[in-house]
Amino acid sequence: MATTTYVNKRTRHRWRLLALMMTALFFAFGSFWLVQVMRGEAQGPNVNVGNDPDYIIDNFSFVRMSETGQPRYVISGERLTHRPNDNTSDIDKPVVQSMSTDHPSMTMTADKAHVNQDQNQIDLSGNVDISRPGSKTSDPLRIRTEALTVLPDEEISKTDKPIQMTLGHASATGVGMVANNATQQLTLGGRGRIVYPPRGQR
């Protein structure tokens, strides 16, 4: 009788050990399968990860610094929506202002802006308005157009759309423009005209 009890206890012990081993094996294979699924979701060629916003900021202001630690330009707006998949941002009512101390600052406003942070490019659209105050060496400048590409680090603004410009008391229209605020040079495209006031009004 005692021998039978001992055998039964050993059998029960073996079954418990086997059950534990099967459970561990199940969890091991389960973990391996989960890792493979996660890798497939992250690396699979046919997986669409989407481009939903990862953050939205209202009434924001962003300051870009130069290599010497001085403010280079400021971007502000009513709302910024960032999308992580392509590292771009959409801005409502953007304001872009250069902060250079070497020449007059330039301020740009629009209805919308699309910012590509990887390429450091800002695309303004809708009622684009550019203004630069006058100085001892330059007349006040104002330009209006419907679309403008801004390269802030190079201080270059360009468009292939029609523009209306006033420089001091003179005015000009054209299709296409490239403005370099660092060199104070501005080039107009074709099919335009320039109007100078009489000498007495300049």
Description:
With 202 residues, this protein is an alpha+beta fold. The protein has a single domain, classed as Lipopolysaccharide (LPS) transport protein A like domain (lipopolysaccharide transport protein A fold, Sandwich), CATH 2.60.450.10. Helix content is 21%, strand content 47%. It has a 6-stranded antiparallel barrel with strand order 2-3-6-7-5-4. The longest helix is centred in the N-terminal third of the chain and has 42 residues, at 2-43. The protein is globular, with a radius of gyration of 32 Å. The termini are far apart. Mean pLDDT is 76; it is low at 1-7 and 22-48. The chain crosses the membrane at residues 17-35. It holds the Pfam family LptC. Keywords: Cell inner membrane, Cell membrane, Membrane, Transmembrane, Transmembrane helix.
Which short descriptors sum up this protein?
LPS export ABC transporter periplasmic protein LptC, LipoPS_assembly_LptC-rel, six-stranded antiparallel barrel, lipopolysaccharide transport protein A fold, 202 residues, globular, 12 strands, alpha+beta, transmembrane helix
